[in-house]
Task: structure prediction
Amino acid sequence: MKKFLAGFLAFIILVAFPIVLLSTITIYWVFTPGTIKKIIHASEIGENLPGLILALAADQAENSAEFDITATAEFVGTTFSAEDVYGLTDPLVDGVGSWFGTDKPIEQLDLTVNITNLKTKLAPAIAEQINSSGMELPTCDFNMFEFDTGAFDDSGIPADFNCPTDSAGFTDELMKNIPDTVNVQDLLQEQLVKNGGASQLALVNQQVDMFRTYWGALHWIVWIGWAMIGFCFLLIILLRLHPGYAPFGWLAWLKLLQILELLPVTLMVWLAPRFILPWISGSFDSVIVAVINKASSALLATYLWPLIWVVAGLLTSTIVWFIIRAIVKHHITGKNQPPQSAPPAQPVAPVATAK
Result:
């Protein structure tokens, strides 16, 4: 009965161990702001921004003959660098990560992104585009632009807007109406209210609270899972105390089985970025697929090294437990063997003496 119960506990350990281990890696290694930023950088989304614009806006370009999406993508690619893109994504990840760890609603997402560097690059790029295309500057009719602030005169021009005749002056005046910082909180709230009103905002807050609850519960589940695994190991030791070397054998075999169940996972995580994902990228000639595959490769690499270290630790402990089992078994079996009786003494022949 004790042996059956010990086997059942070993089965629980083998089922729970990979689930708890992968959950631990996910919580404490993968879904952290630092790792997410590394994955975004590894995806090369900044380097592939023009191609992404072309791919994502393909439908709009087909429906609009007047809109040259290719020229727009080339303009973005030549104006902004990959560092500019990551300069926007990094503070977004940090800000959202910090906010998600609190209980604040989305209305209190205090996140401001500085776009001064983008404005500095955008102004001369627009001026160069105007000069190279031979475009004529509008004669003070700026109804095509939307200005949210400032007073307007009768012709629809902002009161503080000069009417320059050169492209550089035109872009300088245009940049004055673009703020140096963007408040993500205000933009997000405005978009949510526009799409569904206050009810949409309340729904998003409800979903965020639900995700926070699940995320907090997952932390507790991980800690409870490790405690359960440790408790099962302890019960197995107590159930298999006799003979004295039996607990070490059970521990060694359990560690070996844990290695065998982790090896396929580790091998798949190692093979996927090297063979499977490149094959997918080659099969689908798409920038979006390439970016996703690069991000997936970085994600799997985050899992790979913790898995390798766990397998190495389990292998070391397996060898140690087998060695301890052999030593203890040799000691116990040698101690329990009956002592060998001494052979009977041979009679000594009398020694003749000379007379």
